[in-house]
Amino acid sequence: MHPSSSRRFLFLVLLSARLAAPAAAADTGGDAAAMQALRRELAPPGWGPGGDHCAWRGVTCSPPAATGGAGAVTAIELPRRGLRGDFSAAGALPALSRLDLSANSLRGGVPGSLGSLRRLEFLDLSLNALSGPVPASLSGASSLRFLNLSNNALSGAIPGELGRLGKLQELQISGNNLTGGLPPWLASLPALRVLSAYENSLSGPIPPGLGLSSELQVLNLHSNALEGPIPGSLFQLGSLQVLILTLNRLNGSIPDAIGRCRGLSNVRIGDNRLSGAIPASIGDATSLTYFEANTNDLSGGIPTQFARCANLTLLNLAYNRLAGEVPDVLGELRNLQELIVSGNGLGGEFPRAVLRCRNLSKLDLSYNSFHGNLPEDICNNGSRMQFLFLDHNGFSGGIPPGIGGCTRLLALQLGSNNLGGQIPAEIGKVKSLQIALNLSFNHLVGTLPRELGRLDKLVTLDLSSNEISGQIPGDMRGMLSLIEVNLSNNRLSGTIPVFGPFQKSAASSFSGNAKLCGDPLDVDCGSIYGSNYGMDHRRISYRVALAVVGSCVLIFSLVSLVVALFMWRERQEKEAEVKKAEAGEVVVAAPEVVASTVFIESLQQAIDFQSCVKATYKDANELGNGAFSTSYKAVMPSGMVVCVKKLKSVDRTVTHQQTKMIRELERLAHINHKNLVRPIGYVIYDDCALLLHHHMPNGTLLQLLHNDCNADGEKQKPDWPRLLSIAIDVAEGLAFLHQVATIHLDICSGNIYLDAHYNALLGEVEISKLLDPSKGTASISAVAGSFGYIPPEYAYTMQVTVPGNVYSYGVVLLEILTSKLPVEEEFGEGVDLVKWVHTAPARGETPEQIMDPRLSTVSFAWRRQMLAVLKVAMLCTERAPAKRPRMKKVVEMLQEAKNS
């Protein structure tokens, strides 16, 4: 049908429906015409050209008896169907009460015709690509209770006419390009419970009186340009449960009335211009779980009344002007996991009382004025501490040997203090150290302990600007994961050991040590230790080499004998197992399963939990190893193949909080998005948690890009349309996660799974729900993903954010375009894929020289699309987080590239 004819037909449908309005309930002929128009425009799956439209998928009609004829259409629910086209014909369905077209690919404006639906109560058009203004005519849908237009590209101001929607309970308009102010009529809506308008460009004040006319429960306005004070009216009725106002320009003080809200669980008011003291009434909000007020201008002390909030999990007061000491009573907060008070004027001795918080995983006292000695029992038995930031204070004395008890520590920052003495050998016991060990700018003396070599997971080591002497021990070659090292400005001597991370470092990493020589320093050891140094060194090296060779021969002989005995014993055991299996005996004594379930009823008979557990015992079943889990292939007795994911729970939080885990998994099992891997069940035994997923026969994007052959041994052939489709799939899945306030912890090509049709599904989604108590909106007490994909700001914020997710996704795009890994030796020293691409113009290289020629030279169309995607990837990997686009915008740009 010609576009003008289509529009003319829709106009006639609407006109006839309005002329027949008095008899609309009885005459459903208009419904049939409108539904046929929707079928032609949207082409939803399951809508055939003929038959009863009430039998179509996602359509609900009233009983025929209610009208005396055919039933009237009362609901159309078609979320996540990939729909495109004009849906204005829905305005000709007078009995329609529910319309859900969320998470599709709808473009154009929001049809003003929907305002004619007097019975419409539920309208969800979120997660589309709708543009233009919010139509004022929607005010005609006077029965609306739920209106969700979030995550589109709508612009302009919120129309004042919407104030006529007196029954409105939820208004969600987040993630658009709306401007202007929040209209005053929001304060007079009598039924308003949820107001969500975050990530827009709204300005002006929060309407005074908001919360007085209705029992407002959720107010989320973060990432706008709002000004003025936080109205005290928000708390007057005591109904508020969630308040999120981060990243605005709000000023004034925190209203004392905040204590009226006994059910208030989530307060996030950071990154504003708030001043004054935190009111003592905060202790009356006894349900408080998360309190973030960082990066403001708050003064006074930390209220002792926080101790009355027994559920408090996160307390972030960083970068204010708080003074005094950390109150001892905070040690009564048994559920506290993160205490962040960095960048204030706090002082006194180390707050030992907070160590009584048995669940504390992050303690950040950095950039304050604390002094005195560090406690010996800084990590007592059972400590869950993962992040310990005490840098830029005045701590003195030595580093306590008790630091060796911090067996779960991921990052230790003790730099810029007055610590003395030697580095305790016990630090080598902290094998979990992974992100950083920073002891720089202190007064440490003595030699480097050989035990440092046991830290085989450590990435960054900074011991600069101390008074450490002696040689660099060769045992440090055991630091296999080391990327950044700084031993400068000490009193080290001798030759720098031959070790990749040392020689790849800049000379400045070892400078300031007068008697240190060798690579990467341009200092000849003979010039320091005399001409005989090299000869003596060679003689010693020769003797050592002979000893090493002799030892190796002996060890090899012993190992060969042991291996032969082991293989003989294993063969004997296998033969015994076969005999037992033939006799019907139990071969392996599986552990006792504490809890297990399958969420999908049709699969309950097909899945055997003991088989899932046993599959994790064999390395041959391993499919992949991620930052948070290891995946195994498990074949059920029924023949079904399942992917079993064994969690790497650093602190066993998951297995110790089974109720929380089960609740979150059940919730995730009902998240229905085609580009997200959903759990189909779980198994808990001992201290292990297994998550069950559908097996993905085509592996991961990592394997597709970097393996020469597929699972069947066939040569892989690059296919740009397939790769672009995968990129769009992942972008849509990630955009959906951000829309439901979930931040992914490990976006990388190894966590992008491909089903039988090469549709992409983003995995590890459940990790953020299980390991992050704030469900992705606060700092994360876990490693933020895989190397090469981690955004640069994470090094100093230790926070996983939405812009950080966009950066990681941008790395995946570059990986697709270049067919290169995020970190490769060919990029040069200290250069990763992002830096290599961004510095191409400085090297005189064109985009064609960056992109994989096996793809870009196939056709002009492919090359044009790849250049467009390269621009998207460059935006996503901007160094400044504020310059990166939101994922919904990324989806739009990729779709435009595909259609170009």
Automatic annotation (TrEMBL):
Matching SMART domains: LRR_TYP
Keywords: ATP-binding, Glycoprotein, Leucine-rich repeat, Membrane, Nucleotide-binding, Receptor, Repeat, Signal, Transferase, Transmembrane, Transmembrane helix
Protein localization: Membrane
Name of one Pfam family that matches: LRRNT_2
Keyword Signal: yes
Protein kinase domain mapped to chain residues: 617-900
Annotated TM spans: 544-568
One GO CC term, this protein: membrane
Keyword check for Disulfide bond: no
UniProt-recorded Gene Ontology molecular function terms: ATP binding; transferase activity
InterPro entries: Kinase-like_dom_sf (IPR011009), Leu-rich_rpt (IPR001611), Leu-rich_rpt_typical-subtyp (IPR003591), LRR_dom_sf (IPR032675), LRR_N_plant-typ (IPR013210), LRRC69/RLP (IPR052595), Prot_kinase_dom (IPR000719), Ser-Thr/Tyr_kinase_cat_dom (IPR001245)
GO terms for biological process, alphabetical: anatomical structure morphogenesis; plant organ development
Highest taxon above the source species: Eukaryota
Signal peptide positions (record): 1-25
Membrane topology (UniProt): Single-pass type I membrane protein
Name of the molecule in the record: Protein kinase domain-containing protein
Source species: Urochloa decumbens
